[in-house]
TrEMBL record:
HAMAP family (UniProt xref): MoaA_B (MF_01225_B)
Assigned EC number: 4.1.99.22
Residues annotated to bind GTP: R43, R97, T132, K194, R298, A299, R300
Cofactor: [4Fe-4S] cluster
UniProt family annotation: Belongs to the radical SAM superfamily. MoaA family.
Spans annotated as Disordered: 352-382
Binding site for [4Fe-4S] cluster 2: C293, C296, C310
Protein name, entry field: GTP 3',8-cyclase
Physiological role: Catalyzes the cyclization of GTP to (8S)-3',8-cyclo-7,8-dihydroguanosine 5'-triphosphate.
Signal peptide interval: none
Assembly, per entry: Monomer and homodimer.
Designated gene of the protein: moaA
NCBIfam families: moaA
Length: 382
């Protein structure tokens, strides 16, 4: 077997320094970037640790026993996260997703959820407060998450076949425990559970049809995600991507007719389909073959408080430095810094990648923007 060279940069060192503007303005919830995209979603990574070693996210070759995780004092505290989240909500964020790493590994995560559940949008509405988990601790924690105020949960599951799943998580974790977590989450009211499957050609694409069949029967919303070139550690190649159109074709060819349905809202990442003869819903997240940057309303806050305006960003903005500055910046001052960052945002990485890999489709070559240094998904959250 040939050895694969995995380039790894310590992306955590890259951050721009931020200055407080002279003229401060109160937020009006109407922030827009250079492409007229509002700020509606905030994904907050609460830990850079995970108990799985999925090959596309935290491969063992990189995240081994010597890997240096962030020390605890570098992580944003729950109070700091709450303070920043309330500022983002004032700018128009109405949906917060907790990610990681594996967010359920963060000690007392329920306390953070309870703090965030108390936030209200400027017009007094509750937030859509969700969490993405690998499901390993879900059966144990679902009730306390619900009690703390979590609205919904998404579970990553890449295969139903136990051997394939154990191979993909690379820590020998069984499918049955994740399925139990999904069942408990539904039972305590964290549904409808969304199940996210990253499809990688030659690794788990044979699981597309069994997954579609199983979750049609069980009523959860299964979402297929095209394998993406996030970070620098997964050695992504275009030929490993199964396009969403092919996924739909395979499901229909297996005797499960599908009908496209309307998006719930404009910036929804998944294209929705429904089983024609069974009611259950499916989603396709086609970041590679049908980029959706033009509707991207998401900001990401890393575990140590850096703000990223794109999943494929190379540089973050160090909000923690503002929170911990000795001259005690006011919420209004930090509000204006965040507004300034969003107003300058012009990210559209996936659209640019589509233009390039479209030309090179099938060659597996990485060109131009796909070779620049990017942050790891385990650090920024997916
Ligand atoms: S590539 Fe960046 S801008 Fe485009 S959809 Fe993804 S996160 Fe948003």
């Amino acid at each position: 077997m040939t050895e694969k060279f995995i380039p790894l940069t310590d992306f955590r060192q890259f951050a721009s320094s931020l200055a407080i503007p002279d003229q401060l303005q109160a937020p009006d919830g109407q922030l827009q970037d250079t492409l007229a995209r509002p700020l509606h979603d905030l994904r907050i990574s609460v830990t850079d640790r995970c108990n799985f070693r999925c090959v596309y996210c935290m491969p063992k070759a990189v995240f081994d026993k010597d890997y240096q995780y962030l020390p605890h004092q570098d992580l944003l505290s729950f109070e700091e996260i709450h303070r920043l989240a309330s500022i983002f909500v004032a700018h128009g964020v109405n949906k917060i997703r907790l990610t990681g790493g594996e967010p359920l590994l963060r000690k007392n995560i329920e306390k953070l959820i309870a703090l965030l559940a108390g936030l209200r949008t400027p017009d007094g509405k509750q937030l859509d407060l969700t969490l993405t988990t690998n499901g390993s601790l879900l059966a144990r924690k679902a009730q306390s998450l619900k009690d703390a105020g979590l609205t919904r949960v998404s579970v990553s599951l890449d295969a139903l076949n136990d051997n394939v799943f154990r191979h993909m998580n690379d820590v020998d974790f069984s499918v049955s425990e994740v399925l139990e977590g999904i069942a408990v989450a539904e039972k305590v009211g964290l549904g409808p559970v969304k199940v996210n499957m990253v499809v990688k050609a030659g690794v788990n694409d044979q699981e597309i049809v069994p997954m579609a069949r199983y979750f049609q029967r069980n009523g959860q919303i299964l979402r297929f995600i095209e394998y993406m070139d996030v970070g620098a550690s997964n050695g992504w190649q275009m030929e490993e991507v199964i396009p969403s159109a092919e996924i739909i074709r395979r499901i229909q060819a297996a005797g499960m007719p599908l009908t496209p349905i309307e998006a719930n809202y404009k910036s929804e990442t998944a294209k929705r389909w429904r089983h024609t003869d069974g009611g259950a819903e499916l989603g396709l997240i086609s970041s590679v073959t049908q980029a959706f940057c033009s509707d991207c309303t998401r900001a990401r806050l890393s575990t140590e408080g850096k703000l990223y305006t794109c999943l494929f960003a190379t540089r973050g903005h160090d909000l923690r430095a503002l929170l911990r500055a000795s001259d005690q910046h006011s919420d209004l001052a930090i509000t204006n810094v965040i507004a300034g960052i969003w107003r300058k945002r012009d990210d559209r990485y996936s659209e640019l990648r589509s233009q390039q890999t479209g030309a090179d489709s099938g060659t597996g070559k990485e060109t131009g923007s796909t070779t620049r240094k990017k942050i790891e998904m385990s650090y920024i959250g997916g």
